[in-house]
């Protein structure tokens, strides 16, 4: 099977390289994509919170964020090739976006962290098109942000709102978009800019 189910959560069996390649194919085809990078905390939370589990069911792909998930796969007699974390994927996706002149929207973190992240991206990956940016402290009810992301025609939307906010935000808004790879990456902007 292409998936390993851990407590009801289907993890994709792919190396990071294979998975990044799959995302590039989906970007090339303008296929809208919702990616969850799930750690043991997320799996446990999905057992307790049916609304959160429903959101995970909307994801196109769930990757193993952390060695705990890879080990759990081994314990149930299956295997995942390696951990595929949000931060590592963000770095891979930036390299490819730079090569291919892709458009990225940066969503999340405190304003200074966001600004420093965007500044470093422009410096290190000069061919990346910054399609837009928004800090992680905004009104979820205001339709302005989804509109802005829609109009930005972003190929990639990095959603750094932390768990479980980023999954709830993507799951609750994905129907408003017609393209873009939306990926929850937790505290990655803090790490990148720190
Ligand atoms: N964050 C955000 N909006 C919020 C709460 C948090 O953008 O309403 C950001 C926070 O600034 C940090 C990231 O989400 O960049 C991860 O936050 P936290 O460490 O609280 O989450 P976790 O590590 O549990 O995913």
The distinct bound ligands, ions and cofactors come out as: uridine-5'-diphosphate
Order of helices and strands: EEHEHHEHHEHEHEHEH
Q: Count of helical segments? A: 9
Q: Compute the separation of the termini in Å.
A: 39 Å
- Whole-angstrom Rg: 16 Å
Q: Which CATH architecture is right? A: 3-Layer(aba) Sandwich
Enzyme class: transferase
GO molecular function, one term: N-acetylglucosaminyldiphosphoundecaprenol N-acetyl-beta-D-mannosaminyltransferase activity
Pathway: Cell wall biogenesis; teichoic acid biosynthesis
Organism: Planococcus koreensis
How are the SSEs ordered, and which strands pair?
Blueprint: E1 3-6, E2 9-12, H1 16-28, E3 33-38, H2 40-48, H3 50-58, E4 61-64, H4 67-75, H5 86-100, E5 103-108, H6 111-124, E6 129-134, H7 144-152, E7 156-160, H8 165-173, E8 181-184, H9 188-193
Parallel strand pairs: 3-4, 3-8, 5-6, 5-7, 7-8
Antiparallel strand pairs: 1-2
Bound molecules: uridine-5'-diphosphate.
Describe the structure.
The chain has 194 residues and is an alpha/beta fold. The chain has a single domain, classed as 3-Layer(aba) Sandwich (Rossmann fold), CATH 3.40.50. Helix content is 48%, strand content 20%. The strands form 2 sheets. Strands 4-3-8-7-5-6 form a 6-stranded parallel sheet, sandwiched between helices. The protein has a two-stranded antiparallel sheet with strand order 1-2. The chain is globular, with a radius of gyration of 16 Å. Bound molecules: uridine-5'-diphosphate.
């Amino acid at each position: 099977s292409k998936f390993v189910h851990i407590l009801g959560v289907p993890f994709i069996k792919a190396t990071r390289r294979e998975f990044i390649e799959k995302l590039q194919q989906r970007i090339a085809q303008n296929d809208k994509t919702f990616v969850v990078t799930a750690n043991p905390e997320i799996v446990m939370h999905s057992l307790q919170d049916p609304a959160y589990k429903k959101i995970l069911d909307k994801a196109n792909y769930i990757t193993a964020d952390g060695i705990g998930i890879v080990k759990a796969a081994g314990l149930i007699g299956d295997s995942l090739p390696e951990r595929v974390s949000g931060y590592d994927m963000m770095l891979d996706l930036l390299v490819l976006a730079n090569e291919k002149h892709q458009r990225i929207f940066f969503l999340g973190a405190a304003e200074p962290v966001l600004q420093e992240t965007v500044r470093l991206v422009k410096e290190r990956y000069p061919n990346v098109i910054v399609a837009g940016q928004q800090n992680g402290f905004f009104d979820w009810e205001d339709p302005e942000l989804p509109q802005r992301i829609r109009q930005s025609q972003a190929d990639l939307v990095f959603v750094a709102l932390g768990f479980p906010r980023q999954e709830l935000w993507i799951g609750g808004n994905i129907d408003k978009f017609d393209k873009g790879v939306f990926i929850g990456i937790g505290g990655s902007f803090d790490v990148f800019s720190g």
